[in-house]
Amino acid sequence: MADKAVDVDGKTARASRLLARGERVTVRLPDHEPPRTLTPSHIPLTVVHEDEHIAVIDKPAGLVVHPAPGHWEGTLVNALVARGTTLSGGAEGRPGIVHRLDRDTSGLMVVAKTDLAHRRLGAALAARHVHRAYAVLAWGHLDESPTVIEAPLGRHAADRKRMTVRADGRPARTDLRRVARFEVCDLLRAELHTGRTHQIRVHLQHAGHPVVGDPVYAAGGSRRITGPGRGRAEQLERLTPRQALHAAELSFRHPGTGQALRFTSEWPSDLVPALQLLAGHVAPAPGLAYFGFFGT
Questions:
Q1: DSSP H or E segment with residue 246
Q2: Are residues 223 and 255 in the same domain?
Q3: Residue 168 shares a structural domain with residue 292
Q4: What angle in degrees, to the nearest 10, is found between the helix axes of 272-279 and 230-238?
Q5: Domain residues for 19?
Q6: Does the pLDDT at position 34 exceed 60?
Q7: Model pTM?
Q8: Residue 69: is it exposed, middle or buried by C-beta count within 10 angstroms (0-12/13-18/19+)?
């Protein structure tokens, strides 16, 4: 629609147009265009493991995973191309990408370097044999720990960039366990059973405990906290430059050898001031290992 190539009942449709039953949609397909080339982007990457089959990356916040409209360059894929990493075929513009992280979510992800590795990792992911655990700061306190959230997710009817819980959405399950309880929020371990877009962020908002620092699903942010904790909540919000969500643990069987692999990533440096504020008594810098995150 952004290219004005879609008509609804004979009139050019805007990208935000919502369809009604019975309307006639006409799409004018453009002439075949050659595939885009991947421009190398010299962006430093933290590679925690690499062999001839796979690479495991600790992605920084702010880095888009693969090229897409609005981000054709400067992505993780472009950075991998610049360092000469061999990548599997994958979808056009997404070579090597088995699973994704949101731009402002940091942490571990595995990249396939061969087509065989990509197929096997994709099958393992679909069979839920790839284990992913995230560290997250969530406003308020869980009523129970552990907690399971099962709620189907789909696109928001009015804002297609957002996801929401909806009855006709795709099944989604997130397991939550409290790692530490602070005055205004919990440090949680979130484990994915499915990998829907924005899943943890939307599920926590749905449960009434949105991710601290989330610019989209904040549901009021620090304003949710009343009473004597309000000042601490506002301080925390100022010290959280993006959503406090980090892919801290990743485990799977190697697609070539079958060996069990497990990788961990500590709490990221840009979110350390927020955790220091919450922990208070810990010096010099509290981390996930200190709170027993990797042992739960």
A1: strand 245-253
A2: yes
A3: yes
A4: 160
A5: 1-30
A6: no
A7: 0.85
A8: exposed
Query: What's the token pair of residue 170?
Result: 């795709």
Whether residues 122 and 8 fall in one domain: no
The CATH number of the domain holding residue 105 is 3.30.2350.10
**Residues in Cβ contact with 83 at an 8 Å cutoff, skipping those fewer than 6 apart:** 45
Active site residues: 102
pLDDT for 92: 63
Residues facing residue 188 across a β-bridge: 136, 178
Instruction: Write the CA distances from 290 to 108, 121, 275, 282, 285, integer angstroms.
Output: 19, 31, 11, 9, 9
- Domain match, 294 and 155 both: yes
For the chain, the residue count is 296
Residues 135 and 159 in one domain: yes
Mean pLDDT of the chain: 90
Q: Which of 209, 214, 276, 275 is nearest to 241 (CA)?
A: 214
Letter string b/e over residues 94-112, b meaning 16 or more CB atoms within 10 A of that residue's CB: bbbbbbbbbbbbbbbbbbb
Please determine, for residue 21, whether its predicted confidence score (pLDDT) is greater than 70.
yes
pLDDT tens readout for residues 40-96: 888 999 999 999 999 999 999 999 998 877 777 889 999 999 999 999 986 666 889
Q: What is the Cβ-side half-sphere exposure of residue 60, based on CA atoms within 13 angstroms?
A: 11
Q: Are residues 219 and 251 in the same domain?
A: yes
In a domain, 232, yes or no: yes
